[in-house]
Amino acid sequence: MFITKNNGKHSIDFTDYEYCKGTILAIRKDQMHRFYLNSETEGFLLCFKEEFLNSYLNELEVANAIQMFNELLVSPKTQLENNDFSGVFQLVKGIEKEVLLINDIYSFKLIRSLLHLLITLIFRIKSKEYNNNQQSKYLKEFIKFQNILEEDYSKTKKVYDYANKLGFSAKKLNTVVKFIANKSAKEFIDDTVIIKVKRLLLQYDLSIKEIAFKVGFKEPTNLFKYFKKHTKFTPEQFRKQFIN
After folding, report:
1. CATH of residue 197
2. Same domain, 76 and 40
3. Same structural domain, 29 and 120
4. Confidence tier at 62 by pLDDT (50, 70, 90)
5. Whole-number Å distance between alpha carbons of 226 and 194
6. What is the domain range of residue 28?
7. What is the residue-wise DSSP string for 42-93?
8. Going by C-beta distance under 8 Å and a sequence separation of 6 or more, which residues neighbour residue 228?
9. Beta partners for 15?
């Protein structure tokens, strides 16, 4: 999301981010995001699939993209300076022109190239925010852990099980997660599960019992205790808060 006019806020996975002219917000696949409507805000929302990154970017660029769209590695919010704003704006307007005005047999390749340039420019801008060399120390191990957790969070919430799958000791996994995310492996697992539950609670057609089974709790009461322990709200209270 690229803001070109006015101020406001946007929610990504239940965290609000203030924006103004020149703000870029990176939103990952499956994240829950919420618009606070403001008729005076102007900008662009560019959507592209993971397949684009894998098929069109090289291995290093894909690794950079994973970091750029991973809020645990770098903030999803980037604020552009004036000289960076003009470069990003020109590329986005070029994509808009090809999509809405031209749309001929050459447009797909041009859009793909413009998007490639845009992502590369944002890589350059965001690289100023964090130390790539320092963070890369445990990056591969951390991303492997994230991927396994995404697949298995409903099956197990034990640090030992994830460490075992990775071929690590629990101590090594804690070291990796602490270095990258500044929390213990157990805290990271619990935070991930809570985000999953919150997303499901906003699907109002699902009962609390159905949500409990989806995230790996045999009884709704177990989900109730787990959710309240980590959020201070019951699942029903959280759901009502967002309905209101």
Report:
1. 1.10.10.60
2. yes
3. yes
4. confident
5. 9
6. 2-133
7. EEE-----HHHHHHHS-HHHHHHHHHHT-TTTS-SEEE--HHHHHHHHHHHH
8. 234
9. 12
The count of structural domains within the chain is: 2
Do 105 and 158 lie in one domain? The reply is no
Max intra-chain CA distance, the chain: 57
Same domain, residue pair 20 and 35: yes
Separation CA 173–CA 10 (nearest Å): 33
CA angle 157, 163, 165 (to 5 degrees): 95
Same domain, 208 and 107: no
Alpha helices in the chain (DSSP H): 50-56, 59-68, 82-97, 107-126, 132-135, 139-152, 159-166, 170-181, 185-201, 208-214, 220-231, 235-243
Q: Rounded CA gap, 26 and 204, in Å?
A: 26
> Rounded to 5 degrees, what are φ and ψ at 57?
-100, 150
Q: What is the pLDDT of residues 177-228, one digit of tens each?
A: 999 889 999 999 999 999 999 999 999 899 999 999 999 999 999 999 999 9
Cα 32 from Cα 161, distance rounded (Å): 28
Q: Same structural domain for residues 6 and 120? A: yes
